[in-house]
Design a protein that fits this description.
Elements (H helix, E strand, L loop, with lengths): L6 H17 L3 H8 L6 H16 L1 H10 L10 H15 L4 H8 L8 H11 L15 H7 L1 H7 L9 E5 L5 H7 L9 E4 L16 E3 L6 H4 L8 E5 L5 H8 L3 E6 L2 H14 L4 E4 L11 E7 L14 H4 L2 H21 E11 L8 H10 L3 E2 L19 E3 L13 E7 L4
Parallel strand pairs: 4-5, 4-7, 5-6, 7-8
Antiparallel strand pairs: 1-2, 1-3, 8-11, 9-11, 10-11
Helix pairs in contact: 1-2, 1-3, 3-5, 4-5, 5-6, 5-7, 8-9
């Protein structure tokens, strides 16, 4: 019997979600196995979009499902997960209901198809189901962040992000923004509408730019021009910040422990023609041959600040993972402080929305390490952003939403005393 067109894509989306909820994997980690039989790029993109929108709106989709059943389905019931992806397609991806039914019900072979059909049909009747303007975040996330912070961040999660590019030559910013049909918020930055196929964009092969979220580009900006001085990019792969530093005339040592990610960094350097010295090592045991004038630590973290592009983090991360990251981050910062030349600058950054990984780490650095705060200034930041009273930077996805938003980052800067 011929297979229903589109059914393999929905099965792949279901496998992606299963990997997140049952094995705690990221969507990226799950792609290899979950999308193994999906060959065409548009089909792979659709499977990821279905899974992503399901995760983004999960709390609200569950509320709809529960409103249409006499007894709530168990959280791990396959029927609930299938209904989630069916509703995500109908309500977020504008898939016609008949196509959703045709590709959704076969996923419940031997299961409660009639129940799923009835619930879905009831919920997609005209005027029956409307999702809120902003997603309702999972309860444990809202408890962790507090009501005010949660309300501020949620509007930035309603849509996947647009595409930010970092330019090798900041002098070309205005010209490239016009030529590519984008906008710019800072020197060396261009933002394009979401959905652009990266490798088909102008000058991709020429290596004149790379993909990098606007917020992710800020830490390296805070080190300024290198003028041939030595910089260490700690936890460097896949290389966005390394390339920024190299383009700003720093002699960059790019350290990372992951062989696979370091290969990506090398590929990016080759494509852009920028120079750096990649080193594969564990930063906690590595000893440099010389000291550095600047060290950038984009530290391993829970990455909750990337939730608008990786909504799986909203459902995977808890207090246990946060505590593990805090300990690792402190070890890295303590090592880095030893490797700085007197007068050298250290920038600490995490793409996390957790205070334990950001503000609390900065306070720990102030109290425990021989480093002097070097406050971030408003004129160093893209328009619309401002430092905190302490001289740190805190961004989150609810900021600049009228311009497309940005990831959540915490950034602080310190100087090693001369004496």
């Amino acid at each position: 019997m011929p297979q229903t067109p589109g059914l393999p894509v929905r099965r792949a989306a279901l496998r992606l979600l299963d990997a997140v909820f049952r094995r705690g994997e990221t969507l990226e980690q799950a792609e290899g196995a979950a999308l193994g039989d999906i060959r065409k790029a548009p089909d792979r993109a659709l499977a990821k979009a279905i899974a992503g929108e399901t995760l983004r709106w999960l709390t609200d989709l569950d509320a709809l499902i529960d409103s249409a059943t006499k007894q709530n389905l168990p959280d791990d019931a396959k029927a609930r997960m299938v209904l989630r992806i069916m509703l995500a397609q109908a309500l977020r991806l504008d898939t016609p209901p008949h196509a959703v039914i045709a590709t959704g019900l076969p996923l419940l072979a031997g299961g409660p198809r009639r129940l799923a059909h009835g619930v879905f049909s009831a919920l997609v009747k005209p005027g029956r189901s409307v999702l809120p303007e902003a997603p309702t975040l999972p309860e444990r996330v809202a408890e962790r962040w507090g009501a005010e912070k949660t309300a501020a961040i949620a509007p930035g999660l309603a849509f996947p992000p647009e595409l930010d590019l970092a330019l090798k030559d900041a002098a070309e910013t205005e010209t490239r923004a016009v030529a590519m049909g984008g906008v710019t918020f800072a020197p060396g930055h261009v933002r394009l509408p979401r959905g652009a196929a990266v490798e088909s964009l102008a000058d991709y092969k020429a290596g004149d730019w790379w993909v990098q979220d606007l917020a992710a580009s800020i830490p390296a900006r805070l080190l300024g021009d290198g003028a041939g001085k030595n910089a260490l990019d700690l936890c460097a792969a896949p290389g966005g910040k390394t390339m920024q530093l190299a383009a700003a005339s720093w002699n960059v040592t790019a350290l990372d422990s992951s062989k696979r990610r370091l290969e990506l960094l090398k590929d990016n350097l080759k494509r852009t023609g920028l120079k750096a010295s990649p080193v594969r090592a564990d930063a906690l045991t590595w000893e440099p041959k010389h000291r550095f004038d600047a060290i950038l630590i984009d530290a391993p973290c829970t990455a909750t600040g990337t939730c608008r592009r990786h909504p799986d983090v909203l459902h995977r991360i808890g207090k246990g993972q946060i505590a593990e990251m805090v300990e690792l981050q402190r070890g890295l910062v303590a090592k880095a402080a030893e490797w700085l030349n007197p007068g050298g600058v250290l920038v600490y950054a995490v793409c996390s929305l957790e205070a334990e990984e950001g503000e609390e780490q900065a306070a720990w650095i102030d109290a425990e390490l021989d480093l002097t705060p070097a406050p971030i200034m408003s004129e160093e930041l893209p328009a619309g952003l401002a430092p905190t009273p302490e001289g740190w930077l805190r961004t989150h996805p609810g900021m600049l939403t009228d311009q497309g938003g940005l990831d959540g980052f915490f950034v602080g800067r310190w100087v090693k005393p001369l004496g």
